[in-house]
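Predict the 3D structure for this chain.
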Amino acid sequence: MIKKYKSLAIIPTIAIFAMASIVSCSTDSTDDSVIIDEGSDDDEIVTELHAAYAEFNTDATTIYLDGSNVVIETTGLPNHETVYWGEGNDLYLEEDNVATTPSIMSSNNNATTITVDATPNLTGSTVSTDFNTIGIAVSGASIFNDQEGGGALDQAAASLDWTGAHIGPGVYHYHLEPKAFTNDDENLVGVLLDGVFLYGRKCNSTGDYPTDLDASGGHTTTTQFTGEDAEYHYHIINELYSTTGSYIAFAGPYQGY
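Done. Predicted structure below.
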């Protein structure tokens, strides 16, 4: 059951993940993919990772349970082609129309670790973001919000590669729909700081674009990882960003759960 959400004042992150700001939310119910030892209502211990975590790039990420939390350690190095790998790398892709910033290998350390709720709850708490990672994508790279350098993403749009990402500050990260692994589909995109998963523009429960997203860009339905159990999750919003031909992940300020 979805509970009341609060908007959260976002401190613009230097880069927003695939296209807009990310929202946070979650579900009170436990699905079949999360096993819980119910010793008492106040002492729930998650003993298995959510099935969706199996989709993450194991060459870049190490994901494990730590009590009631999930720790995600990542090298931040994506497993797909981009101009940002730099010439000479096997995954380098020439993109003459991209106003490149430093390459992945010559930039600052891309490694990032985040800790999220293993079983997110909708208590009305809020999460604020800074100029930094607000989620980890299945590729292993970071997700940022829809701001760039404290201003509109437009200021840096020319530096975005074919999959809506670039470098600055330091780490490679997505602002727009990451077409390298989700392109007008229902694929898993990643997980946000609140422990809620982000999916592509379509919903697995209907095979179409959701029309019931809340202020946080999410809703509660079944997904490809939950069987018959409904679960709160986010979607990339089916709204074009400027004239780039790409889609905003979350528009406006980060929403809290």
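The radius of gyration is 17 Å.
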